[in-house]
Predict the 3D structure of the following.
Amino acid sequence: MHRIALATYDPGAEPSMDGDLPELVRALTDAGARAEARYWDDPDADWGGYDLVVIRSTWDYSWRAAEFGAWVERVGRATRIANPAGVVRWNTDKRYLGELAAAGVPTVPTRYIAPGEPADLPDGHEYVIKPTSGAGARFAARYTPAEHDTAVRQLARMHAEGFTAMVQPYVRGIDVSGERALQFFGGRLLHASRKGAVLAPGTPYDADKVAHPDLERWQPTDAELAVAEKALAAVPGGEELLYGRVDLVDGEDGEPRLMELELVEPNLFLRLHPGSLERVTEAVLTAAGE
């Protein structure tokens, strides 16, 4: 009987935001595994006692990136962890977008401004600033050139907290065709979803955002599948991936571009795609038996 831990975050007094977690624990248990959800920062957890630890919803990790990184490495030495520690380490720094672009993956153009570097911001178009380590649109905002001073203040705040900023043009296609999320599990496409724009004009960078507005089921196009598969194939150590979510938007030419590659703790949206639960369960059980 396989022992499987699904690593999540401690919500404290609030209900967990991971509505998929109880269903996945139940499905794995019904399939014969000893499965349980565990807080990733639980000091009493014996991670080496599991056959597999699946990083499922550690959604507070970007606030504690160093601590989380050390935990992933520690668990990876004690047992099998999915995704592998090396992949997680690579994916938690969004400078990976530059590596993927260099490998020929169509991406949203991205520049990086590290602490101590000048605030070289666009002056001819709308743009987005967000940290290279973050989740849930944390510290992300959309600006026009007229809002330069506000954008500089955001950079100063981020740099003071040790964050490197990434600057991207605001991709106007997202207002028309949304952002598509293609989920892969066990090496195959699981399902796809589409959501609306997260960053409304004038929303402060430190305000809470709705991470997945107007989420709906989506049938990916051949072009979207091609970009997604090319991105996953370019991941260092990608042959060991258990799961991954590829977020795409349309560029100015109408062709899909990689916005983000989520290989750490993507929301699976199983409540939108209940038929995918069985395939996820099978893939986790297969990984636990390797």
Q: What stands out?
A: Residues 65-78 form the longest helix (14 residues). The radius of gyration is 19 Å. DSSP finds eight helices and 13 strands in the chain. The chain has a mean pLDDT of 92.
